[in-house]
Amino acid sequence: MDLNENTPIYEIEVRYPELAPVFESLGMGFDTLSMLGCITLYDACASAGVDVDMFIASLKGFLN
């Protein structure tokens, strides 16, 4: 899966549950975001005031 700003949070939760701490460290509840259905990485970052490109880079770094 290519992580990008349009990736739905629920897809990330299913494929990469180990990323939950990264979301939680920025005050974004992984489980809550996932339950909302079609929330994308862009939406989550915008609502948390986080730069989406930097957050995606952090997620990819965590996975590597």
How many distinct helices? 5
From the alpha carbons, calculate the radius of gyration and give it in angstroms: 10 Å
Tell me the number of structural domains: 1
Binned strand content: under 5%
* Classification by helices and strands: mainly alpha
What is the compact description of this entry?
The chain has 64 residues and is mostly helical. It is built from 5 helices and no strands. It has one domain (9-63).
What are the defining features of this structure?
64 residues, 61% helix
Q: Any overview of this molecule?
A:
It contains five helices and no strands. The longest helix is centred in the last third of the chain and has 12 residues, at 52-63. It has one domain. The mean pLDDT is 84. It has helices spanning 9-15, 20-25, 30-35, 41-48, 52-63. The radius of gyration is 10 Å and the shape is globular. It is an all-alpha fold and 64 residues long.
Which SSEs are present, and which pair or pack?
Blueprint: H1 9-15, H2 20-25, H3 30-35, H4 41-48, H5 52-63
